[in-house]
UniProtKB/TrEMBL annotation:
It comes from the Eukaryota. One of its GO terms (molecular function) is malate dehydrogenase (decarboxylating) (NAD+) activity. Divalent metal cations. Prefers magnesium or manganese. Keywords: Metal-binding, NAD, Oxidoreductase. GO terms for cellular component: cytosol; mitochondrion. This is Malic enzyme. One of its GO terms (biological process) is malate metabolic process. InterPro entries: Aminoacid_DH-like_N_sf, Malic_enzyme_CS, Malic_N_dom, Malic_N_dom_sf, Malic_NAD-bd, Malic_OxRdtase, NAD(P)-bd_dom_sf. (S)-malate binds at residues 431, 475. Residues 90-275 form the Malic enzyme N-terminal domain.
Length: 582
């Protein structure tokens, strides 16, 4: 594709095609993962960059390197060893690392991300070999700018960083408080933005905020690499996070900040505090909500229910559950042309005490309170603790599980759903697989093949009535990278509800179920994430331009073909480019 996509349009990122200027040589070049080609350096490059004698004589193609690397990967003893191998690969050769994953994405996804990345995070201090990312200490708030400034690229007006993922490690991948090990979730999320949306790997920054830990095992572990004191909370914590955000915007003025795996209260508070000031995103709240909403939208095309009429029960009102509720609420309001307050009554949230009620008062979190049912509905006099009883009363079109309570969607619950709705949407989303509220095969059998199912982990296709039905995985990786790509390329000042609804609509249109309602999945597979991310980014960019939030001029939004080319030409690919000595 031509680098002048859209003709007069202004490109946001450095060119991803053509010769690359390289300032390093000799061993320094081989020690730089972004520039290192290993045995892939050409004869001329070995001469120009003083590499003769530092490499084996045979020059190999990237395909040959991938073949060798895959053999080495396959010989690892277990999944954690494979994860460690991939970490080592990332530290040696960026292009080879991403090309290896790209060629084997379906197989490797669970290794580089959940669930194996969770094991790596739990063992972070014990398997530690080499640091990656920026470590900020709450004991040294005055050093935040000094520490982050080490990642500034001199001469770049934007500081050289487009996308920041930050975590304080309090609520990691369903395994809880992992303290400073949270740096690995920041690293992993950024790897996914590159794999799934072509974000430049040398223009991203993983950050961990070390604010202590409440994990007793870590506190008593002599090898633990973070602060061995209880988590700091209150004003000191708030001020520390604020210092990070202000410093990030000072050093990297147009960077997109992605909050990841913060605790429930902090996640909501931080998103609400900064979402109207700068471009921020919380994947646990917004990403999970977006991909789930996309599955719902695809399902509504099949069961012919209008968004304005939708009734949803969410079983598990934590970070993910409330985030899903918020995205559904915003989508209904947008589609119906109503305020969010007017449509909140279409969502019923259930947690440990049962259906959330206003009478529960201060026992409800700030995120839960908007979804508490008013006393006027008389739930205090009904059975509001039994999920089956709630479903019998509400007659929902959609049942979503984010409870981590295995088996909560019983045969009786499912049959109650199917009794009131012809094609019920049932989404057991809790991770990992052992915590799912129901198994897809059971859902198919209990609903006589009528349930439209999406899960939070990968499942094999189910068989019912002589048909094989794909099971949609509500994998955030088909959603958040595209949103980030759109925000980065447009230099969006904010990430608005309208942008997210547009992103979800674009994602829903790519659902295989729209082409094959009887067999297709409600969400695209992760192998299609890069293609889908382009569509999502285009939707986000259009919103940013329409609402005056884009800081890039002359983006070619009027024509789909031109806009798609403009997006794709700026996406990074794992290929070896010709090197020119600076």
């Amino acid at each position: 594709m031509a680098p002048d996509a859209g003709k007069d349009s202004q490109l946001t990122l450095p060119p991803t095609r053509g010769p690359l200027q390289v300032p390093l040589s000799g061993r320094l070049l081989l020690d730089s993962p972004f520039y290192n080609k290993g045995t892939g350096f050409t004869s001329q490059e070995r001469l120009d960059f003083r590499l003769k004698g530092l490499l084996p004589t045979n020059i190999q193609t990237l395909d040959e390197q991938v073949k060798r690397a895959y053999q080495q990967y396959s010989n690892q003893g277990d999944d954690l060893a494979k994860n460690t191998f991939m970490t080592s690969m990332a530290e040696q050769n960026t292009v080879l690392y991403y090309r290896l994953i790209q060629d084997h994405l379906k197989e490797m996804f669970s290794i580089i991300y959940t669930p194996t990345e969770g094991d790596a995070i739990e063992n972070y201090s014990r398997v530690f070999r080499r640091p990656d990312g920026c470590f900020l200490s709450i004991k040294h708030p005055d050093e935040v700018e000094e520490r982050m400034s080490k990642f500034v690229r001199e001469g770049d007006p934007d500081g050289g960083v487009d996308y920041i993922v930050v975590s304080d490690g309090e609520e990691i991948l369903g395994i809880g408080d992992q303290g400073i090990g949270g740096i690995l979730i920041s690293v992993a999320k950024l790897a996914l933005t590159t794999i799934c949306a072509g974000l430049h790997p040398d223009r991203t920054l993983p950050v961990v905020l070390d604010t202590g830990t409440d994990n007793e095992d870590l506190l008593s572990d002599d090898l633990y690499l973070g602060h061995r004191f209880k988590r700091v909370r209150g004003e000191a914590y708030t001020d520390f996070v604020d210092r990070f955000v202000r410093t990030a915007k000072k050093l990297f003025p147009k960077a997109y900040i992605h909050f990841e795996d913060f605790g429930l209260t902090n996640a909501r508070t931080l998103l609400d505090r900064y979402r109207n000031e700068t471009a921020v995103f919380n994947d646990d709240i917004q990403g999970t909500g977006c991909v789930t909403l996309a599955a719902i939208m695809a399902g509504l095309h099949i069961n012919k229910v209008k968004m304005e009429e939708l009734r949803v029960v969410i079983f598990g009102a934590g970070t993910a559950g409330c985030g899903i509720a918020e995205q559904i609420q915003a989508a209904i309001a947008t589609k119906a042309g109503k305020s969010k307050d007017e449509v909140v009554s279409q969502i019923w949230c259930v947690d440990k005490p049962g259906l959330l009620l206003e009478s529960m008062g201060d026992s409800l979190s700030a995120a839960q309170k908007p979804y508490a049912r008013p006393s006027s509905e008389g739930w205090e006099d009904k059975d509001h603790k039994s999920l089956q009883a709630i479903i019998a009363s509400v007659k929902p079109h959609v049942l979503i599980g984010t409870s981590t309570k295995p088996g909560a969607f019983t045969k009786e619950v499912v049959q109650e759903m199917a009794q009131h709705v012809d094609r019920p949407l049932i989404f057991p989303l809790s991770n990992p697989t052992r915590l799912h509220e129901a198994k897809p095969q059971d859902l198919a059998e209990w609903s006589e093949g009528r349930a439209l199912v999406a899960t939070g982990s990968p499942f094999s296709p189910v068989k019912y009535g002589g048909k094989e039905i794909e099971v949609a995985e509500c994998n955030n990786s088909v959603c958040f990278p595209g949103i980030g790509l759109g925000a980065v390329l447009s230099r969006a000042k904010l990430v608005t509800d309208k942008m997210l609804v547009s992103a979800v609509t674009a994602l829903a249109k790519e659902a295989p179920a729209l082409k094959d309602p009887d067999r297709g999945a409600l969400v695209p597979d992760v192998e299609d994430a890069r293609r889908v991310s382009v569509k999502i980014a285009m939707a986000v960019i259009r919103c940013a331009v329409e609402d005056g939030l884009a800081q890039v001029q002359n983006i070619p939004v009027r024509n789909d073909e031109d806009l798609q080319e403009w997006v794709e030409v700026q996406m990074w690919d794992p290929v070896y480019r010709e090197y020119k000595k600076v």
